[in-house]
Design goal:
The complex is a heterodimer of chains A (335) and B (261).
Chain A lengths: L1 E2 L6 E2 L23 E10 L2 E11 L4 E5 L6 H8 L7 E6 L2 E2 L2 H5 L1 E4 L11 H12 L6 H7 L15 H13 L5 E5 L7 H16 L3 E6 L2 H7 L2 E6 L2 E7 H7 L4 E8 L3 H9 L4 E7 L2 E7 L4 H10 L4 E7 L3 H9 L6
Parallel strand pairs in A: 5-10, 5-11, 8-9, 9-10
Antiparallel strand pairs in A: 1-2, 3-4, 3-6, 6-7, 11-12, 13-15, 13-16, 14-15
Chain B lengths: L1 H11 L3 H31 L3 H5 L7 H13 L1 H17 L1 H8 L3 H32 L11 H24 L2 H26 L10 H8 L6 H4 L6 H25 L3
The chains are: A alpha/beta (335), B mainly alpha (261).
Chain lengths: 335, 261
């Protein structure tokens, strides 16, 4: 049992193998998808917040909805939760028309933690459990999971932002739902809290739950999600597994970062002569070498050494979700 | 529905403002009648002949109408409470969270309407008990004359509380809704009615305003003809009140079922 900090959660750390094999769990796509979204469109007056967005969330996945601020993520989730009425299009849960009963089988955190300010954390959870019709006995357990048990009798209005967020997450866990929907779950949490959320999601995923997560924090999505849908200005840009998104963007080559003592221009010249190198670009304090996959970092190292250059830095640069995301959506935040 | 009401009770039972208002209201019902009764006693003692002219509004059958009229001043308490309960949901955005957690929109608004009805029933019962008490300490014997006023009390309570609920759904903010309730109920409606009735001689038009209609059903117990010239028959007023109540319900439901929350 590992508790990280005294302000984060107390969660049993799951032993995961190195790398991300836990993400390669077998699952059947299209087997009665948890959520099917069909050409959802939403107008706020003249503004088109969602434009014929369609995708499916497979059972057992951790599905990330990525988008800049103002892209329509929260509108999308709001429609699915019946908070907002779509202008056109529809959605289905588990293959059937969605209703209140489906929402009772899910745990959802949408935009902000919404609770009664004059009631304690415990009493607020009691109301949530009553509405769901289950989870009455879970209240103490979920409060302990999010490390709010000591403050359970304090009024919600006295909670800090992080505590409010954690109470919202606790509410999602009531009744052990099969599907969880999180809109910016790490909002307001300190680094310890963010790490704990990540651990929690991994555990839930290992238990076979389906998680739908809207976020603009690419690092989190990359680390946790199995699938991603990228949305900008209400338009779905790409929906695929995270692995395919990361693999595809690199093309057939690889990127290696190098740096050496002294003259970087000489290094650039030397490296440029090596067979298999496509291009060499200078960035702050280092060179980014695009080359064929047949060339290993070791070959590059040997080549430089043979030419009298000692490398101080040599690392393979993994194409990150961030660069793919910025490529797809442009580099400017939406209003 | 019982389950939904249980959820509403969980929201209310630890809300301090709810208890303060409830206690104030119940005490006020009794106190207001007590003050009026005392004044009436004094008036009779000092001017013995007046009992002939005034009758005894605290004995049967007038007691029902008297208590009812007193109550119409106090209905702003439960109206206020209804506004607070509803606007709290908007302020805390729990109206969204309740839906997200698994209530349907229909369930959410319906239970609020049922809650308002239950409040009206309880108010009526409290007023009936108060009436029994004051009638018992006044001369006269029990008679069922005037008991239709019990129904009018119920109707008036429903009208006021549903009106308050509609204001809460319309404005979504407690401050604005409360100010409108009080300003309209205590000042503007009276001004409009008086203008229509006395200045423009357009009675009974003025009596068909939302709150006024139920006020006329339970008139000032002392001088009816002077204050309410050409008042329409009770049946007409009841129909008007019922129409208003249906309109409030229709509006509140439509707002809730169709719009973005």
């Amino acid at each position: 049992m590992v508790g990280i900090g005294n302000r984060g959660f107390c969660v049993k750390k799951v032993a995961v193998p190195a790398g991300r094999p836990y993400l390669q769990k077998n699952y059947q796509l299209l087997m009665s998808a948890v959520l099917t979204i069909d050409r959802l469109t939403k107008f706020y007056g003249p503004i088109k917040a969602l434009d014929e967005v369609s995708f499916e969330v497979p059972r057992g996945s951790v599905f990330g909805i990525l988008g800049p601020n103002g892209s329509g993520k929260t509108t999308l989730l709001g429609i699915v939760m019946d908070i907002i009425k779509a202008s056109s299009g529809g959605f289905r849960f588990f293959g059937h028309e969605a209703g209140a009963a489906d929402r009772r089988q899910m745990g959802t955190l949408l935009e902000t933690p919404n609770f009664y300010h004059y009631l304690s954390g415990e009493r607020n959870l009691r109301i949530a459990a009553e509405i769901k019709g289950k989870g009455m006995g879970d209240i103490d357990a979920v409060l302990k999971k999010v490390n709010l048990y000591e403050r359970r009798k304090s009024k919600f209005s006295t909670y800090s932002l992080g505590m409010k967020q954690r109470l919202a997450i606790a509410s999602c866990l009531l009744g052990d739902p099969e599907v969880l929907v999180f809109d910016e779950p790490t909002n307001g949490l300190d680094p310890a809290g963010i790490a704990e959320i990540r651990e929690l999601m991994k555990r839930l995923y290992a238990e076979g739950k389906t998680i739908i997560m809207a976020s603009h924090i690419l690092d989190e999505v990359e680390k946790v999600c199995t699938h991603v849908a990228i949305i900008q200005k209400g338009v779905l840009k790409r929906v695929d597994t995270v692995d395919r998104v990361l693999a595809g963007s690199q093309g057939a080559g690889q990127r290696i970062e190098i740096a050496a003592e002294g003259n970087m221009d000489r290094l650039q010249q030397v490296v440029g002569k090596l067979a298999g190198v496509v291009s060499v670009q200078a960035e702050e304090g280092l060179l980014v070498v695009d080359c064929a996959t047949s060339l290993s970092p070791g070959d590059l190292n040997r080549h430089c050494f043979d030419n009298g250059l000692v490398l101080t830095r040599l690392s393979a640069r993994r194409q990150s979700l961030e660069s793919t995301f910025l490529e797809l959506t442009g580099k400017v935040s939406e209003r | 529905m019982l389950h939904l009401l249980k959820i509403e009770w969980l929201k209310m039972k630890n809300y301090r403002a709810f208890w303060i208002f409830t206690i104030f209201y119940v005490v006020s019902i009794f106190l207001l009648n007590y003050i009026a009764w005392t004044i009436h006693q004094r008036t009779i003692e000092q001017v013995p002949g007046s009992s002939m002219i005034l009758g005894n509004p605290f004995a049967y059958p007038g007691i029902w109408g008297t208590v009812g009229w007193m109550n119409s001043w106090l209905l702003y308490f439960p109206g206020l409470m209804m506004i607070l309960l509803m606007t709290n949901e908007f302020n805390f955005k729990t109206h969204r969270q309740n839906i997200i957690d698994g209530l349907s929109r229909n369930q959410f608004i319906t239970v609020k309407l049922v809650l308002a009805l239950i409040m009206a029933v309880i108010i009526t019962i409290i007023n009936v008990l108060t009436a029994f008490y004051f009638a018992s300490i006044s001369p006269g014997t029990f008679t069922t004359d005037g008991m239709e006023n019990i129904f009018y009390i119920f109707l008036q309570s429903v009208a006021y509380i549903f009106f308050a609920l509609m204001l809460a759904v319309l404005f979504r903010r407690s401050g604005v809704a409360i100010i409108v309730l009080f300003l309209y109920g205590l000042i503007f409606e009276w001004v409009i009615t008086a203008t229509l009735t006395f200045k423009f001689q357009l009675a009974p038009a003025g009596y068909f305003l939302p709150l006024e209609a139920s006020d006329v059903l339970l008139p000032f117990p002392f001088e009816k003809k002077v204050f309410y010239p050409n008042a329409p028959a009770a049946g007409v007023l009841i129909a008007v009140i019922a129409a208003y109540i249906i309109a409030y319900v229709f509006f509140a439901r439509k707002r809730f079922l169709r719009d973005d929350l």
